[in-house]
Specification:
Radius of gyration: 20 Å
Number of domains: 2
Strand order of the largest sheet: 1-2-3-4-5
CATH superfamily of the largest domain: HAD superfamily/HAD-like
Shape: elongated
Order of helices and strands: HEHEHEEEHEEEHE
Helix content: 25-40%
Number of strands: 9
Mean pLDDT: 81
Length: 187
């Protein structure tokens, strides 16, 4: 993939784009379409963004807003009409242009693991918080083979999965500037 560095190259790229049979534009919400805000529920798009995104959609370009936030939260904040497709919670949730909401199906053993983690957090008293959040974050590592089968009994303290850590990729300049907690969404 080449980086478009000079304005001259943008022109030829845009000319090719005009004649493409299908076009898709993926847009990050926080920090791209809308500024980062300490009060997350006030992260509205920059002025003119809803109008521009609507115009892009009106010429047949498929627009997808991508966010670590819940998809419904992005839909409410963006104010873009008609509403583009939204992929929330790092792709776990989707809202299509017709408003259909879906969540990716997780394999039973993954659901079991999440349920066990929730139970452990409750037992450890770590859920005595005022707000609940949906959390999703990319991790660099590999889950080693899980010996359990769905429905197997599990005892308190039993290890159900092991993750082998792997080296994380280097952070680019933009990632280093992102505030901590940007992947949290109020449940």
């Amino acid at each position: 993939m080449q980086t478009l560095e000079k304005q001259v190259k943008y022109g030829s790229f845009l000319e090719q784009l005009k004649t493409a049979e299908q076009r898709v534009l993926l847009l990050d919400y926080d920090g791209t379409l809308a500024p980062f805000r300490a009060a997350r529920d006030h992260a509205f798009p920059y002025p003119g963004i809803p109008y521009l995104v609507s115009r892009i959609m009106s010429v047949g370009t498929r627009v997808v807003m991508v966010s670590g936030r819940r998809a419904e939260e992005v839909a409410a904040l963006s104010g873009i009409r008609p509403q583009p497709e939204i992929w929330g919670s790092h792709g776990l949730e989707r809202i299509t242009v017709d408003g259909t909401y879906s969540v990716a199906d997780l394999e039973p053993h993954k659901l079991t693991g999440l349920s066990q983690a929730s139970l452990w957090l409750n037992e450890e008293g770590m859920t005595r918080v005022r707000d609940r959040f949906v959390v999703s974050a990319p991790l660099t590592g590999r889950v080693l083979r899980i010996e359990l089968e769905p429905g197997d009994p599990v005892k308190t303290g039993q290890v159900v999965a092991r993750v082998r850590a792997e080296a994380s990729p280097l952070l680019d300049a933009r990632t280093r500037l992102e505030p901590h907690g940007a992947g949290l969404a109020r449940a």
